[in-house]
Amino acid sequence: MMRATRFRHFVPAAAILATAPLAGGAASAGQAGRAPDLPALRTIERGLWELRERGASAAPRKVCVADPAMLMQVQHGAGVCSRFVIDSQPNRATVHYTCPGAGHGRTTIRVETGRVLQIESQGIANNAPFNVSYEARHAGACR
Prior knowledge:
By secondary structure, this protein is mainly beta. It has one domain (27-138). The chain has helices at 13-17, 39-42, and strands at 29-30, 47-53, 61-65, 82-89, 92-99, 103-113, 116-125, 128-140. Strands 1-4-5-6-7-8-2-3 form an eight-stranded antiparallel beta sheet. Strand 6 and strand 7 (116-125) form a beta hairpin. It starts with 12 loop residues before the first helix and ends with a strand.
């Protein structure tokens, strides 16, 4: 299994998929639209989250989280995407995802508590590259 702790450079999907075991390995591919079970996501509270982009002065982005797995593809919203687990630990998960016709990305979520997360994501969305880093904080119930 390939392990990632911090990433700064984009890794092409072909390079990640080439490391996937053919059968029965520790890494797993999620079904389209459904995230593989990731222990780090189990502790994340549902509800309203504020995502503050590091280094940006803009107001925080607000996201209503019904399923914590949606934070793995924060730049692609609720798009139907397939996911490949790169790293899964109790407080951290890294996933590569592909959204047919919409792009792809690689996201790492580090869980500080069920109410505070660090999210790093990079990839292609709307035919343009992105590389974002957020501090996410639970802000209450969705309205």
